[in-house]
């Protein structure tokens, strides 16, 4: 499945199938969250949060692609991500885009 952030696929015609989306809420465990709190005192990268967000983006994208496939789509155009904080240490990631059928 082709997933692109552009509005069109160069040299290809398609018909719009509809909006597709996938989301997940992820968190790190409490001990890692406490460790991250201490890290904010000295600064630096929060690697466990980076890992959590990468996993969340991949899972949300996979769910979006699964929804597009269930609609018979060949590609997703205008793919985007949105995030929101649910609570301390937890975030929602949503992937969304327009499912299309290539001609």
Topology at a glance:
Layout: E1 2-3, E2 14-27, H1 30-42, H2 47-70, E3 75-87, E4 90-102
Parallel strand pairs: 1-3
Antiparallel strand pairs: 2-4, 3-4
Question: Overview of this structure, please?
Answer:
This protein has 103 residues and is of the alpha+beta class. The chain has two helices and four strands; from the N terminus they run E-E-H-H-E-E.
Quickly list its features.
single chain, alpha+beta, 4 strands
Share of β-strand residues: 35-45%
Largest sheet, in brief, is:
4 strands, mixed
| Order of SSEs | EEHHEE
Ends apart, CA distance between termini: 15 Å
What is the average per-residue confidence, as pLDDT, rounded to a whole number?
A: 88
Structural class: alpha+beta
Order of strands across the widest beta sheet?
1-3-4-2
Query: Quaternary state, please?
Result: single chain
Number of helices: 2
Global Rg: 17 Å
Q: How many distinct beta strands?
A: 4
Which descriptor suits the 3D outline? elongated
Regions with pLDDT < 50 over 5+ consecutive residues? none
**What percentage of residues falls in helices of 4 or more residues?**
25-40%
Describe, in short, the structure shown.
The chain is an alpha+beta fold. The protein contains 2 helices and 4 strands.
């Amino acid at each position: 499945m082709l997933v692109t952030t552009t509005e069109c696929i160069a040299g290809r015609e398609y018909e719009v199938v509809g909006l597709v989306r996938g989301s997940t809420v992820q968190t790190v465990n409490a001990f890692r969250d406490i460790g991250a709190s201490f890290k904010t005192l000295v600064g630096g990268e929060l690697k466990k949060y980076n890992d959590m967000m990468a996993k969340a983006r991949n899972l949300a994208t996979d769910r979006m692609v699964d929804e597009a496939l269930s609609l018979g789509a060949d590609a997703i155009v205008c793919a985007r991500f949105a995030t929101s904080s649910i609570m301390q240490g937890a975030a929602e990631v949503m992937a969304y885009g327009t499912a299309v059928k290539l001609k």
